């Protein structure tokens, strides 16, 4: 059953980040684990990375 939940769950977006932006991604994921409404942060980070000409998330 757990395996099926993994298959059916939406795919986690993948993106690259600079070392300086890793802390922000980590903090967002830590907050998202405590509040399900914040799960969009990872998708927002992925969209920001895609918008970058090199496809890399950079710190704000």
Describe the structure in your own words.
With 60 residues, the protein is mainly α. The chain contains three helices and two strands. Strands 1-2 form a two-stranded parallel ribbon. α2 packs antiparallel against α3. It is globular and about 40 Å long. The model has no long low-confidence stretch (mean pLDDT 79).
Condensed summary:
With 60 residues, the chain is mainly α. The protein contains 3 helices and 2 strands; from the N terminus they run αβααβ. The protein has helices at 2-8, 19-34, 40-51; strands at residues 16-17, 56-57.
Q: What would the principal axes of the Cα set say about the shape?
A: globular
Give the helices and strands as they follow along the chain: HEHHE
Helix share, percent? 55-70%
Indicate the proportion of strand residues: 5-15%
The strand count comes to: 2
Strand order in space, largest sheet:
1-2
Outline the fold blueprint.
Blueprint: H1 2-8, E1 16-17, H2 19-34, H3 40-51, E2 56-57
Parallel strand pairs: 1-2
Defining key terms:
3 helices, 60 residues, mainly alpha, 58% helix, two-stranded parallel ribbon, single chain, globular
């Amino acid at each position: 059953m757990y395996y099926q939940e993994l298959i059916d769950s939406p795919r986690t977006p993948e993106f690259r980040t600079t070392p300086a932006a890793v802390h922000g991604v980590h903090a967002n994921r830590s907050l998202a684990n405590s509040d399900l409404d914040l799960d969009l942060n990872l998708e927002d980070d992925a969209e920001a990375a895609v918008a970058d000409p090199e496809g890399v998330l950079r710190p704000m």
